[in-house]
């Protein structure tokens, strides 16, 4: 396991699913962890309690990732309350899905704000607190490389922005020894997309391994990138999708 002893991480959207798994995994590796949530306060407090039970410090910050001010404030609060910031994980996300003609401008803006603008603003705020060895890791989607069904044009538009952002920012922050990477999950067993759900058989049929991934599979990849072994990996896009895009 990666050694993150003495490090502080912020995981956006860390109250459930992949975000919660990442928060727990980073804490298990030794990091103190801040996490944001929009509405799931009870779930966020539960994750905080689990992290504290590991002997680590943890805080939950309410922040809507569609609000640029709240995104920046959550970063600054994490650094202030936990004393530093070494790792930013841009995980918060939504899944807008319907025929593209039906999306309103407001829905388009929200998806772009949550996925693209929040990652940009969060990184802007984070680098002011980071020293050499900082890590910025975003959570994208394997669907941006291969769209096997309709209804995801807006989702893919907003998530695809992270691909170019990751590569450009990695180049820009390289001289400061801050790495920037993107992890792209595929079908992952969470409460939003359970492995025994209505649409699971179709998703499983697309994978090479014949199964859903687990949230901890993604979390393990993030922890590796956040740790010492990931120091020479930057500008990379790592796909964790049970071989769907193979």
Task: Provide an overview of this structure.
It is a single chain. This protein is α/β, with parallel strands linked by helices. The protein has a single domain, classed as NAD(P)-binding Rossmann-like Domain (Rossmann fold). It has helices spanning 17-28, 41-53, 68-82, 105-127, 153-173, 200-206, 215-226; strands at residues 8-11, 32-37, 58-62, 87-90, 135-139, 179-185, 188-189, 213-214, 237-240. The strands form 2 sheets. A 7-stranded parallel β-sheet has the order 3-2-1-4-5-6-9, with helices on both faces. Helix 5 (153-173) links the parallel strand 5 and strand 6 (179-185). Helix 1 (17-28) packs parallel to helix 2 (41-53) and helix 3 (68-82) packs parallel to helix 4. It is globular. The model has no long low-confidence stretch (mean pLDDT 97).
Record keyword descriptors for this entry.
alpha/beta; Rossmann fold; 7-stranded parallel sheet; two-stranded parallel sheet; 9 strands
How much of the residues is beta strand, in percent? 15-25%
Inertia-based shape: globular
By helix and strand content, what is the structural category?
alpha/beta
Q: Major β-sheet, in short?
A: 7 strands, parallel
CATH class placement: Alpha Beta
Summarize the structure.
Helix 4 (105-127) packs parallel to helix 5 (153-173).
């Amino acid at each position: 396991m990666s050694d993150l002893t003495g490090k502080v991480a912020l995981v956006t959207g860390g109250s459930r699913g992949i975000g919660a798994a990442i928060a727990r995994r980073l804490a298990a590796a030794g990091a103190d962890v801040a996490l944001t949530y929009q509405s799931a306060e009870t779930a966020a407090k539960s994750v905080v309690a689990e992290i504290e039970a590991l002997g680590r410090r943890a805080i939950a910050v309410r922040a809507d990732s569609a609000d640029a001010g709240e995104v920046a404030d959550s970063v600054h609060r994490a650094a202030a309350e936990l004393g530093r910031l070494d790792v930013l994980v841009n995980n918060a996300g939504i899944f807008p899905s319907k025929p593209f003609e039906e999306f309103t401008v407001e829905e388009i803006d929200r998806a772009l704000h949550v996925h693209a603008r929040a990652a940009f603003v969060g990184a802007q705020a984070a680098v002011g607190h980071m020293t050499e060895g900082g890590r910025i890791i975003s959570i994208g989607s394997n669907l941006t490389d291969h769209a096997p069904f309709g209804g995801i044009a807006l989702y893919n538009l907003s998530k695809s922005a992270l691909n170019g952002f990751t590569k450009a920012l990695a180049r820009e922050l390289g001289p400061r020894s801050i790495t920037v990477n993107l992890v792209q999950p595929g079908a992952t067993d969470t409460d939003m997309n359970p492995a025994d759900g209505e649409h699971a058989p179709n998703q499983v049929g697309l994978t090479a391994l014949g199964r859903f991934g687990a949230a901890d599979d993604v979390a393990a990849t993030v922890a590796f990138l956040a740790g010492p072994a990931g120091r020479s990996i930057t500008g990379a896009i790592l796909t964790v999708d049970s071989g769907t895009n193979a």
